[in-house]
Amino acid sequence: MRRGISVAAAAAALALAVSACGGEDTPQQSAAPAPSDPAAVSGEVTWWDTSDATNEGPVFKELKADFEAKYPKIKVNHVNVPFADAQNKFKTAAQSGSGAPDVLRADVGWVAEFASLGYLAPLDGTPALDQPEDFLPSPAGSGRYNDKTYGVPQVTDTLGLLYNKELLKKAGHDAPPKTFEELKTVAQDVKSKAGADGLALNVDAYFLLPFIYGEGGDLLDVTTKKITVASPQSVAGLKVVEDLIKSGAAAKPAIQDSYTNAETAFKEGKVAMIFNGPWSNTDNLGGKVFKDNPDNFGIAPVPAGSVKAGAPTGGHDYTVYAGSKNLDASYLFVRFMDSAESQAKIAGKLGLLPTRKSAYDMPEAQGNAMIGRWKEPMTAAVERPWIPEAGQLFQPLVEGYQKLATGGTTSDAMAQDVAKAYQGLLKGWSL
């Protein structure tokens, strides 16, 4: 599951957040001044890379080698840590004061929590925060907490509607659906005319958000500290999903391995449409129905609800451990890895979206057609609440979504249950 977190992991994360030494009262480490001569910096940096070890890892290793060639006095110990394990593994190491990496590639939803616990070094005034005006505003926001910068954005992403052009054409549609209403119609037409399922849903909280955003809802209103997941607008979004399942427009969702099941069905031509992000480009293009016919692979913005088209902002940030013994070397490593040149290389080879505006104009990035094809879907990206509790919001939502998808609850009841769970996580917030 791309964005999910297991019940056990969520419970462990919450326990760590509550019991962490110092908690929110832990003094934040002041940023060290930049070294006068970067070439003189020496030492070792341990880097936890949470990217996919098979498809993405080799490119990041190439960049690491380039860094070591530029700064021969600095050695980087590259450790690939599975994304699903990294959040709690880092928190355990940081809390104990032993085994934490100098640099962590963190999910955008982790940064505020880690910073609130005192685990991250502030990056303002250090080489790590280089040319901040070049960053796109939404991904840059994920690295800030209490008016300080604790993470610099490495890649950004969102969800789009991925579709099989040939199946849509067989069903009588030359263009992808632009609204939820059209999504239902096109999916039903594919099922009745093209011999495949129209839509596969990934029963995961992250993938539920476009339906909530589309009807004008959200999980929270951070400004007023109000829980809004049970608002009429948010419930309207849940009802869209409920109707897609009940009407048969969406195939009966898989609950276990939901992401893999939806992705596999799409690659094999068994379903015409799914929601997914740019991280899945390589996987999809290697699939049965796209490998020899890449032009059949369609990418569009997520369909709009009655209010707008909206999909969550995702991605990863580079962060530096506050207890690092090699801060100067770590700052230089982050600056190199997050430069426009490095981002353009990642974009060109992997199709991942840069967070620096200038990277999009570089030849390597422009050489990958996928970068341009994701430009329109990214215009619908919605900034998520960058708060310490953000990492805990998805588990109650996915549990409710699973019940909704199997007919074990209704949209209204699900929303109320999730809202109550949020009240237990967000002290002082109102419904």
TrEMBL record:
InterPro entries: SBP (IPR006059)
Superkingdom assignment: Bacteria
Record's signal peptide: 1-20
Bilayer-crossing regions: none
PROSITE patterns in UniProt: PROKAR_LIPOPROTEIN
Gene Ontology cellular component annotations, sorted alphabetically: ATP-binding cassette (ABC) transporter complex, substrate-binding subunit-containing
Name of a matching Pfam family: SBP_bac_1
Keywords: Signal, Transport
The UniProt record lists the keyword Chaperone: no
GO BP: maltodextrin transmembrane transport; maltose transport
GO molecular function list: maltose binding
Family to which the UniProt record says this protein belongs: Belongs to the bacterial solute-binding protein 1 family.
This protein's name: Extracellular solute-binding protein
Source species: Sphaerisporangium album
